[in-house]
Design brief:
Elements (H helix, E strand, L loop, with lengths): L1 H27 L7 H8 L3 H7 L3 H26 L3 H17 L5 H7 L6 H28 L8 H22 L2 H15 L2 H9 L1
Helix pairs in contact: 1-2, 2-3, 4-7, 5-7, 5-8, 5-9, 6-7, 7-8, 8-9
Length: about 210
C-alpha cells in the first residue's frame, strides 16, 4: 500500500538518527549519563516517538551494541580484504581507535564496559561478544602474519590479541583522562614495535 511505502523509510530513518545520537552520547558521556529526553531533543522528536522505536533504554542499548559490532566487523573485513600484509593490518586496526579518540570520542563498547555492572544482562553479553570478536580476528591475523614472517611475537596469538585490545582500550582511557593524545600514540608505537618483524626494524633504522 502507498501508506506503508511512505512510512517505512521514515521509521527506519528516525531509528537510525536515534542510534546515531545515542552512540555519540555513549562515546562522549557514557550510557548512564544521558536520558531519553537528551536523545529526543537532539533528534528533534517527542519522547513518545522515541519509545515507539525503542520501548526501553535497555532495548536502545542492545540495538546500539549490535549495530556497533556489525559495523566494526565490516571494517575489519575491509582491512583484511584490502591488505594482505599482517603488520599493515595491525597498523590499520590500531588506527581505528586513534581516529575515534582524535574525534573526541571513545570506543563505544569500551565506554559501556566501564559501566558493565549497571547495564542490562543482554547488553553485557553483547559487549563481551564485541571483544571476543575482536580478539578472534586479531588472533587469526597474528597467526597468519607470523607464519608469513610479516609479524613477530612471543607466546600464543590469542594472548597477544588480548594484550593488543587491552592496550588500545586502556590507552584511550588514560589519554582521555589526561587530555594527552600523544600518550595514546606512544602506546600504539610501543605496541606495534613488539610485533614488528626484525627485518622491518633494521630497514627503518637504516632509513
Amino acid at each position: 500500500m502507498p501508506t506503508k511505502k511512505s512510512t517505512t523509510p521514515d521509521r527506519a530513518g528516525t531509528a537510525g538518527r536515534i542510534l546515531d545520537v545515542a552512540e555519540r552520547l555513549v562515546q562522549v558521556r557514557g550510557f548512564n549519563a544521558f536520558s531519553y529526553a537528551d536523545v529526543a531533543k537532539a533528534v528533534g522528536i517527542q519522547k513518545a516517538s522515541l519509545h515507539h522505536h525503542f520501548a526501553t533504554k535497555a532495548d536502545l542499548g542492545v540495538a546500539l551494541v549490535t549495530r556497533y559490532r556489525h559495523s566494526f566487523l565490516d571494517t575489519l573485513r575491509s582491512i583484511e580484504a584490502t591488505s594482505s600484509h599482517g603488520f599493515e593490518r595491525l597498523e590499520r586496526y590500531a588506527d581505528l581507535y586513534g581516529k575515534v579518540l582524535r574525534a573526541g570520542r571513545m570506543c563505544m563498547c569500551g565506554m559501556l564496559a566501564s559501566d558493565a555492572a549497571t547495564l542490562p544482562k543482554p547488553m553485557r553479553g553483547s559487549i563481551a561478544e564485541f571483544f571476543a570478536e575482536n580478539e578472534e580476528w586479531l588472533s587469526r591475523i597474528l597467526a597468519e602474519g607470523k607464519k608469513r614472517g610479516d609479524i613477530t611475537f612471543d607466546g600464543s596469538a590469542a594472548s597477544m590479541a588480548a594484550f593488543i585490545v587491552s592496550s588500545l582500550e586502556g590507552g584511550m582511557l588514560v589519554s582521555r583522562g589526561s587530555g594527552d593524545l600523544d600518550h595514546f600514540d606512544d602506546v600504539v608505537d610501543r605496541l606495534l614495535e613488539r610485533v614488528r618483524p626484525a627485518k622491518t626494524k633494521t630497514k627503518r633504522r637504516s632509513g
